[in-house]
Amino acid sequence: MYSKEIEAHKKTLRISDAQRDILVGLMLGDGHLETQNNGKTYRLKVEQSANKAEYVQWLYKSFENFVLNKPKSKEKIRNGVVTENIWFSTLSHGSFRFYAQQFYVNGKKVIPKIIGKLLTPLSMAVWFMDDGSIKSKFHRAKIINTQCFAKKEVLLLIKILKDKFKINAKLREQKDGYQIYIISESINNFRKLVEEYIIDSMRYKLD
Description:
By secondary structure, the protein is of the alpha+beta class. It has two domains: 109 residues, Homing endonucleases (Endonuclease I-creI), CATH 3.10.28; 88 residues, Endonuclease I-creI (Roll), CATH 3.10.28. The protein is built from eight helices and ten strands.
């Protein structure tokens, strides 16, 4: 598209309810909102390791009307090891501004006070696909990696899980921060909430 066509296209865009829910899950997980004009508009950037290509494609399809280019691969070198990532970014758009204002303070991700209103089963499924894992093959409990958030923010998330979704979880301290530990007694409730949204390549996390 030429620049005039892009601007005309952007004027037709409106974020859907499903896109809002997915965006909230990505903000809790690995997604990022970036601005190039001091917060007037934002673009969503998604980047995952190549073994999560199906998940990235699903996210791309979910935001396809906001995206000009299909997901691309790129190599990254970390500690001398070459890895491949898959990524895409959306157009910069005002529809993302509210979420950037809620989830970022001075460029750092935070948990907004209104997270209880924003979090839905679809949001939780995306969050789990991004940052969730099984504790071990011997336990039913699930882990959600929340190390990038402060302790009080993780405690707020745990409270929301219990109050809104009847999911009991505990704070789990690690060397690099805090995780959410969903206890085995709540796994059935958790599964019922998110199962319909979990894509095939991520279903192993629920097993």
